[in-house]
Structures are given as C-alpha cells and as structure tokens.
Amino acid sequence: MKRTDLSANNISKCFLQPGEDRLLYVLEDMDFEIKEGEFVTILGPSGCGKSTFLNILAGFETANQGQTFCCGEPIKGPSPERAVVFQSPVLFPWMDVKSNIMYGLKQVGKKKGEAQKITAEYISAVGLEGFENYYPCQLSGGMQQRVALARSLILNPKVLLMDEPFAALDAQTRYSMQQLLLRLWESNRQTIVFITHDVEEALLLSDRICIMSKRPGRIIEEISVPFEWPRPISLTGSGDFSQLKSHILSILLD
Ligand SMILES: Nc1ncnc2c1ncn2[C@@H]1O[C@H](COP(=O)(O)OP(=O)(O)O)[C@@H](O)[C@H]1O
Ligand SMILES: [Mg+2]
What we know:
Strand order of the largest sheet: 6-7-8-3-9-10
Strand content: 25-35%
CATH architecture of the largest domain: 3-Layer(aba) Sandwich
Shape: globular
Helix content: 25-40%
Number of helices: 7
CATH topology of the largest domain: Rossmann fold
Distance between the termini: 36 Å
Number of strands: 10
Bound molecules: adenosine-5'-diphosphate, magnesium ion
CATH superfamily of the largest domain: P-loop containing nucleotide triphosphate hydrolases
Largest sheet: 6 strands, mixed
CATH class of the largest domain: Alpha Beta
C-alpha cells in the first residue's frame, strides 16, 4: 500500500468580501487525498476555489474548517517539502539563471562547489544549457517557467503543487513543458497536484483527475485516467480520448 502524502478532510474556506461585511464561501466540505508518487490534476470552473485550495495545501492560507495533512503531519505553514509553481514564474529579476536556480541550495547551507554541481545538473535537466548567465527579462515565457521549475525541484521536494503552470504559454511551448515535466516525474516520482482548466492537459499528464463543482467548490467526480504511458500526442485523436474528454466537459459545463 502506498503512503498518503497529502490529505484534506472536510475543508471549508470563506473570505470577507472586500468593501462589504459579507462572506464569500469558496470551498465547502472538500475532501482530497493523494498517494506517494501520484500525479493528480484538479479541473474546475474559473473562480471555484482551485488556487485557494492549492494555497491551503501549500500552507499559505488556512482553512476555516477541516484538516490538512502532509505525510500524516498537520500542515501548519509553508515547507520546502511542498514546492509551489505558479502560472507566472516567480524569479528574482536581479539574479541570472544559475543564481535563481541555486538560490534554495544556498538557503539550506549547501557548500558552494556542491551547489554549483547540482545547479548544473538541473540546468541541463530543464534544457537551459548556454543560458546560465541570462537574466529573467532576457528569457522567453517558457524558459522562465523552466527556471521556476528547476528552482522548485532542486530542493528535492516530496510534493509539487502546480497552479496552471503552463496556461500562459503558446501551444507548442506548453507541449514541450508537459513533456519536460513528465520526464522529470519519471525519474524523481514526486507527488504532483496540478491545477489546470485544460481537459486535454489533464488527460495527457495525470493518473487521476478530480473535478470540482462551481463555488463553493468541492470535488464532485474523480476519474482514473485509463491511458498507458507514454501518452503520445496522437492519443488526443483516439475515440477513447475524445469520449472521456466530452464526458469531463459535460460535467464542467453542467
Ligand atoms: N484573499 C482573498 N480575499 C477575498 N476573496 C478571495 C481571496 N482569494 C480568493 N478570493 C475569491 O475566492 C474565489 C476563488 O478564487 P480562486 O481560488 O482564485 O479560484 P480559481 O483558482 O478556481 O479560479 C474567487 O471568487 C476570489 O475572488
Ligand atoms: Mg486559480
């Protein structure tokens, strides 16, 4: 039996609406569980509370009700074992690619020589050799997201929390980033929670898809993705793929 890496039991979250003294109920009685090494995508309509939920798992927000656990321990705040990748890459504009990627290693006190060696491995893993001395403003959006991914992975987190990380990229770059993520996942087997609004992306990447309801959000359906690995892009043209895609869309658009 695989270990449960993250779980949320009966989570509810509301926010005070700005300028009013009314509450907005964003999540209600949300349950979620992910096992070690599993890749789960969360799909849901815009505004249903996906980012709020991810922020609760990351420890940036706290739920008003319910519990969250990481490897059996209550989540009390952010931790390097739960790395987060956002839609807009969060990089230090004043640092070049290698310093951005190496940053976390310095924070945890790695010696310079070793930190440089590990950084070089990650630069190569995300295909940024030759761009070590570039600053974020000198990179394309896809390259910036590669730096952000390497920055998160370099501390070897148990869990990767990704909030629509490829949504702002053009179709070709998105595809190459998806392939890169799958290659990294194949070798490191992090546990991945990946938010997307793109049904095809969810079907190409994940073991399991959780579909959320409209706000207040909770999971209304879970689907085990039946396709074998590797999943070539041609899979998107198959009958089984289209059928599952329309089933998911019908739930989302309901
Ligand atoms: N800090 C906040 N204060 C008030 N309302 C918020 C806050 N964060 C999110 N919300 C509201 O919660 C709802 C869900 O937001 P979010 O989790 O970002 O949705 P999603 O990621 O599914 O599009 C939205 O209506 C948003 O306005
Ligand atoms: Mg969001």
